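Worked example 2:
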Amino acid sequence: MTEFIRLLLTILLLAVCMPVAAQDVAVAKARLERALHFAELYNWDASRTEFAAAETIFQAAGDERNTLYAKIGRVRSTADQRALPATVAWLTSELEENPLLQHDKQLRLFCLIAKGDIDSEIDAGAMREDWQEVQDLALQLGDKKWQYRSLAQLGIAAFYNGDLATAGKNVATALAAATQAGDVGAQVVFLTALGIGMRESHMNDEANGYFEKALKVASTVEDIGYPVFTKEALLENLIDLKRYNEATQLADEILNRAQRRQHPQAQEIVLTLEAHIAMQRGDTATALQKLQESMALSKSGGFVRDLAEAQGMASDIYRGRGEFAKATEMASLAATATQESGDAWSVPRRLDTVALLNIKLGKYKEADSIFDRASAFVDSLIGNYSSVLQKTAIINASSDLYSHHFALAADQLNDPAKAYTIVEQVRGRVTTDLLMSGAVASPQAKKDQRAISELRLKLAGARSTVDVRRIRDQIFQVEQSQWITPEISILRARSREAVSMDTVLKSLDSSSVILEYVVADPRSYCLVISTAGVHIVPLPRKEVIDSLVGAYLKAVKAKAPARIEGRRLYDALVAPIAEASKRQTLIVIRDGSLYLAPFDAFVDKADHFVVEAHTLIYEPSATSYYLLRSQRRRQPASGHELLAVGGVPYDPAELKQVSVTRGYEPGSLSDLPASKDEVIAAEAAVHGAGDVVLIGTHATESAFKQTAATPFDIMHLAVHGFASSTERNRSALVLLSDPRAGEDGLLQASEIVQLPLHTNLVVLSACDTAVGPVEGEEGIATLSRAFLLAGAGSVVSTLWSIDDTFSLYLMKQFYKHIGAHEPAAIALAAAKRDMLRRFGAAAVPYYWAAYTVEGATAWGKKP
């Protein structure tokens, strides 16, 4: 009886359970689909519950395939709650041994995505392999979404390895594809990734724009949830910008959420950032406490890259306390962990810290060796790609390394030859590589620039806020193409040695001296190179020099005589150098704020301007000086002597609208009546049979671009100019628009570098053409530098807004000397002397000192 009852109950139980199990499987599939939906939005909080529930039901139902699918999703969604190396080991084992993952391509794809995400935290090399296989499988499966998503991840892997060109190109391409597909989750992640790239390049204001754009996109889809990745990136950027109150509020918000959700990685990241804020506020005890908590979480979770960050910050605190041995130990651990994580971009910075600490301990040879290792690392990164934008980003981010190493060579090693090698390895590197190798502008870059110009024309006609925002968003999307197809690429980019000091010495004559400045703390330097030898002169610290330059420029722009300020600069920067007073030609290689200072307007001990006894030439580096000097004067194949533009009939209302809609400062941009006379004077002095003069309504951007493709000896532009001290491509010359040709009238730096110039001299008689953002050891990104990169032999440009009337006199005198076959630098110096003699005390520096010459020093009009 008992057995019969047991059998009956079993049959009844099976009859009841069978339809329930089928129903549960349907529910499980729905939950798996929902989990995948959240996962593709990178909302791991929402996906982990769904994956776990689906896994349980599939396992009970004996569905091995979907059980594994859900388990992989659960593991990925809870990755920040477990030890990453162990998680990766399990995923690797499954990929290698599980038959389902050997034959089911869709399942294998999902597993590789999970592994690639986790490897991105601990091993850039493995990450790259993961995402390459994801891309291959996505291509086989025709999965377009994971084709572009894997492309972006490969870009991030390239970023970790220091290949910014590939990184920017991949992520920007993926962003464009995600935007077109309406893939909001990917848009948020890719915008954040681009913002992180900007931040790492010290372009923090631009980075904020990317993060805000990402958060704006995230807010449009509720299922995305809390965008912690973007919030953490924004937090780091706010700290960089020293906006500590905002940063503290955001850190508390992220940390509270991470603790409630049990996210150890988010917790350790925010703890490290909170430690940074505490450090800035002087609370080192709190900072160390938070770092200890962060390092413990990082070690247990296997977050190697984050561990390195915390160790580096701990080293900074110990260094501040004077505990140099402990600081060196932590810095070395941070450098090792950084290299183990595959983050090639950060290795030089870590090594720089270790070297500086060795100097503190008196271990100079060890420090020199570590600096050499870090410099070789940077040099290989620079040489690995051709994009001007990316070369500049690497140099900008690594500039402190070279100034620190230079100081060691100057102060402790007393080795001028080593100091020369250090600074010349990186200074003006982009210009030097271009001179050695040449460059090319891609057709796509030109097409993108035209699209931006056309959109700006539409922006000028926008009549509503909605239209303005829509067009700006379109411009933003097209501007991402600068990552995909940079304006120009250097044809042969590789690691290279600077031109030797002996070679440069042999190229100098007895009347010239090279003054190569290094502006740094706790002191600055001048590397003096002349036929008498090479030595280093110590100078005041960066803060002092910056203050002197600021005071001088304030006086000059107020149209004051500025003799006291000019004398102070002379005493600080020129008087300590004995050779400077004995040589007629001063070849100045500037650094930092010195890019904005006109050396020829400094006042010497005899109360004379430097220009009264010397000719000033500015160069990006000693190497580029030698290369430019070595180039033969180019003979235009066309026989044309001059292309001149001036007398532009500006419409004040249109100029104001242009400045506001494009984000420029709306200054008083009126007609330049003397510019027409200036152009006529230039043509009269040069007077070649093939001269082209664009005056009045003929002075359009399209006409200039078309004509500039023809070789000319000289190009002269007497026009208005906009300067940006923060964004390298925002500076522009203002010509007339040509809507039919799709040109908005703004000839921006990004367009200039694409021009196929074959000209020996460009004269930019416009405001602020030698002003731009200083980009570390690469120099200053200006309109004048853009013309050099485009192929000009030398460029005359201006440091501030110029007076139209005095400019006319100076340019007439300049072309008078050019017509007498004097080299450009000598002709400019002579014209300035002419002005001083003609106007006496009325010729204050504001009217003449703005003009500078950079580039090939020996060029003059051929007799």
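The chain has a mean pLDDT of 82. The CA atoms of residues 149 and 174 lie 6 Å apart.
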